[in-house]
Amino acid sequence: MDKLKMHSPDLTQRNIDAIKGLFPTVVTETVDADGNPVRAVDFDALRQELTDHVVEGPQERYQLDWPGKRAAAFAANAPIAKTLRPVREDSVNFDTTKNLFIEGDNLDALKLLQESYLGKVKLIYIDPPYNTGNDEFVYPDDYSEGADEHLLRSGQVNNAGERLRSNPDSNGRFHSDWLDMIYPRLKLAKSLLTPDGYIVVSIDDAEFSALELLLDEVFGASNKLAVLVWDRNRKNDARFFSVGHEYMIVYARNKSILTERGTRLREPQSGIVEAREFIADATARNADDWEATQAEWRKWTSSFPKDDERRKLGRFSKVGPRGPYRDDGDISWPGGGGPRFDILHPATGNLCKVPPRGWVFSTKQRFDEMVANGHVVFGPDETTLPRLIRYLFESEGLVMGSVHYSYAQSAAVDFMKLMGAKVFDNPKNWKDLRRIIEYLTEPHDIVVDFFAGSASTGHAVLDLNVATESQRRFILVQVAEPVPEKSVAETHAYETISGIARDRLRRVGDAIGTASATDAGFRMFRVDTTNMADTSTTADALGQGKLTGMIDSVKPDRTDDDLLFQVLLDWGLDLAEPIKVEVIEARRILSVANGALIACFAGEVTDGVVKAIARRHPLRAVFLDAGFANDAARINVEQIFREVSPATEVRAI
């Protein structure tokens, strides 16, 4: 019976698999430092496959580089012996929710999520820490080099320790530290995205240029969709310019797939629901008097302030049986070179004037269809070009612009009202995030934020689900960063930022209440060391007195739930699947997703328990290795499954 590996995937081996798929002959075998056989890539053979397209040695190439980049890339691929332990007491609706909240280093969390959510996430939004130049960093990854080592390797000091550059940044690693942190996380994040997925990254001026180049490298420059500018608060105390904006950089996982599928991103026009209600009321009052309804409509749309998005509804200035419309649309082919065919004027019977750029419609048949559907209006005679008609309520929506206005004070006020105090500085405006999420996702998609902060992304998903009766899910990751000493958060008994985030989600869920069908809960997990005991120590080094304790491969403080979720991670199953608990012959049995997996971690497994599990024909079954008295018992379990449920994949831990 094979054992589960019980650690995060080795992404280097996954890359070797990908290379083998393209060039089978370049993958060979060698031995590692311990003499064990391992797969490897023969770079000489690979070089031969790519003879005309290899850049080597000092040859110049276009790339973003910094001291420590190789180590950062290695950090993304290296497996870790860690797990996600469920924390029921800090969860909400643990047994039924599909949302996840993970407390811990997001680099570890992203590695642990690789198998379960590979290619399943539609949108990743992150707001990483902006590089303020402070020496202390919230994400001090193990591979980060010391300041002295970095100064020497990056050429800022010589071997004698003498500075070679004037006024370097405080630790000499101003940009490198930040790039070391974000690079492996972006590499891991990419593999979680669906083929038609998106990543959106918030950033300010300090690292905008470096981040854009880094995203080009990780996701490909051809997959860049937009740089959104968010105009926020301005201060009058700046020496040169008052910088009052931030950016959101948007990349597709694969833009060509979006193009092939004909994807067109659109969002509902602001105020469209109110507009429908107004027109319905006005029509009821005025019957078929469209001039009266039109006059009321124009008065209503002009009543909004100039900076109110609803004022733009007034562009649809005319009203008819199909609601507000505008008849000033250009009917010519954009850019020129469009089709040219004869169109007769319906009143004069003469040939209409053809636009210099050609008709916007590809065929005369399509033109006639649009006329019949009331989407084309003709001029008084053939000398005037026809125009397109657009109906407000039949519009497919608006493409999102790249410049937006959002004020931090309003987000802070909303947050303070929800939490009862200012327990977090500068929360992201969840309404802005809701707009982005609605624009880029569908009703059943998964949204990930691995720099969750105060959980603005989770708030946005929950609110959007209520408003649109959808079932989007979130996965949030936040490190257990302590709140500042003597802060408002500390006085309100919060110990960590992640604690603030969870409390916010609870409060949002309470506000939603039970009247809505929206899933307002979350399963909480904490990144921790693996559940498996270290059995690699030799008996001589351990000492006879402690040898007995090494028989059990599971750490003594770990529960069945702990083991189950590490198995789910190892087998690549969704951590939000429903779990059913029952007892068979005094043994606790855990069934996941109606038989996708059945687990028994009892200290002794009987034939009766094994047969009862096998008769349910699960896709997978897992047992505790220590639950088998001997090899014969283990072989007996395999034999039972071969006879009763041969399709079941049976493993031990």
TrEMBL record:
Gene3D superfamilies found in the cross-reference section: Vaccinia Virus protein VP39 (3.40.50.150)
One Gene Ontology molecular-function label: N-methyltransferase activity
Keyword Methyltransferase applies: yes
SUPFAM superfamilies: S-adenosyl-L-methionine-dependent methyltransferases
Alphabetically ordered keywords of this record: Methyltransferase, S-adenosyl-L-methionine, Transferase
Domain of life: Bacteria
Residue ranges constituting the DNA methylase N-4/N-6 domain according to the UniProt record: 121-465
A family per Pfam: N6_N4_Mtase
Presence of the UniProt keyword Methyltransferase in the record: yes
InterPro entries according to UniProt: DNA_methylase_N4/N6, DNA_methylase_N6_adenine_CS, N4/N6-MTase_EcoPI_Mod-like, SAM-dependent_MTases_sf
The protein, known as: Site-specific DNA-methyltransferase
Organism expressing this protein natively: Ornithinimicrobium pratense
Organism taxonomic ancestry: Bacteria, Bacillati, Actinomycetota, Actinomycetes, Micrococcales
